[in-house]
Amino acid sequence: MSYELRDVKIHVLENAQYYMNIGYAGYRVTSDFLPKRDHPVTGEIIEHLGVDMTGAYGWNALDWVVAPWSGKIVSIEKDVTLSAGAGEETQEERAKKIRELGIGSGNYVRLRHNDRVETRMIHLAYGTVTSKGVGDIVKKGERLGYMGMTGMAVGAHLHFEVIMDGKHVDPIPYLLGEINVVSDYENQGGAYMGYIKLTKELKYGDKGEDVMLLQLRLCQLSAEIEAEMKSHSFKSDGSPDGGFGTGTQNTLNKVQKLAGLSETGRLDKQTMDFLNSDFITLYKGLNDKSKEVDTLSKTVTKLQSDYNNLSQQVDQVKNALGIIKNFA
After folding, report:
1. Beta bridge partners of residue 121, listed in sequence order
2. Strand partners, 162
3. Which of 48, 120, 258, 290 has the fewest CB atoms within 10 Å around its CB?
4. How far lies 221's CA from each of 121, 206, 271, in Å?
5. Per-residue DSSP letter, 125
């Protein structure tokens, strides 16, 4: 039985997202993630490794399929025209041909979001699949193709899969935002990346997603720091390595110095509070921090020089007054 899926946080259907944003139901699940089910075409009892979805309304059932998170295309098929649900032959004959050709998934896009999570969007309509290819990066919300029924499908829908550590898992908790995914393929650094909030104190030797967030956050501070971070703490594909090594430590130490913080080389609470401040202001202002220090230093030097000159003048006046007093 189909049902409306509400409170979706991670979107894979463009129009459905729009309707949810204006207060209407946007998603309808027509088939859940199940270990076994009767296949609607073949009648075989097989595993259903994803969820089938359409828009919540009949006239909104067809929809653009979009990337749930930014990712790299690792596999793609865009040339399948056959559908078990439509064509000149019988459904049985079409299904047999599709099986023989090994194109049951129809047109699809498979994305890698980080070293643990991949997703697959299946049965996309022929002629609508993205022009990008394997190795290309797509951004969160980018159109991948139009919902269709290519391959072993009898009606237009999106079959959506989440693969965690090589195993298919239920996509629903991911769509509801109950399980968070941090993409390795967001814009790296600069003011164009979304706001990153750091939540965990870190030190040399730590590894994982929290370190990756720190490395990305540091890249937001200035072009100079971004270039420095990418020279030692990023992989060849442009993603952070997630290791709190000497490079990350040295750059963090440099940022602490520029910001007037204790130079601990660790992401301590004081540094975390600083990095969690308004990132646009920070991005524009941090480079000016050293300029500000230089300006203040020059001002202090000038004041010291003025003070010295004034002291000499005061001494000269005192000497003159002493001479006058002796003659009086």
Report:
1. 109, 160
2. 119, 169
3. 290
4. 35, 22, 13
5. P
Task: Give first-to-last CA distance, the chain, whole Å.
Answer: 115
- What band does 103 get if pLDDT is binned at 50, 70 and 90? confident
Whether residue 281 has pLDDT greater than 90: no
Question: How far is residue 22 from each of residues 15, 26, 212, measured CA to CA in Å?
Answer: 11, 10, 34
Interval 290-317 mean pLDDT: 68
> Candidates 3.20.20.140, 3.90.226.10, 3.40.980.10, 1.10.101.10; correct CATH number of 187-328?
1.10.101.10
Rounded Cα distance, 281 and 119, in Å: 35
Residues sharing a CB contact under 8 Å with residue 279, sequence separation 6 or more, in sequence order: 191, 195, 196, 217, 220
Nearest to 183 by CA among 151, 209, 152: 209
Encoded tokens for 141 = 């919300």
CATH 2.70.70.10 residue spans of the chain = 3-175
Fold exhibited by the domain 3-175: Glucose Permease (Domain IIA) (2.70.70)
Q: What crossing angle do the helices spanning 223-232 and 209-219 adopt, rounded to 10°?
A: 140
Check pLDDT > 60 for residue 255: yes
- The segment(s) of the chain belonging to CATH 1.10.101.10 are 187-328
Q: How confident is the model at residue 276 (pLDDT cuts 50, 70, 90)?
A: confident
| Structure confidence by residue, pLDDT tens digits, 145-185 | 999 999 988 888 999 999 999 999 999 999 999 998 989 88
Q: Is the pLDDT of residue 39 over 70?
A: no
User: Would you state the structure tokens that stand for residue 258, as one six-digit string?
Assistant: 């520029």
**Alpha helices for the chain (secondary structure H):** 14-21, 91-101, 172-175, 209-219, 223-232, 246-258, 269-275, 279-327
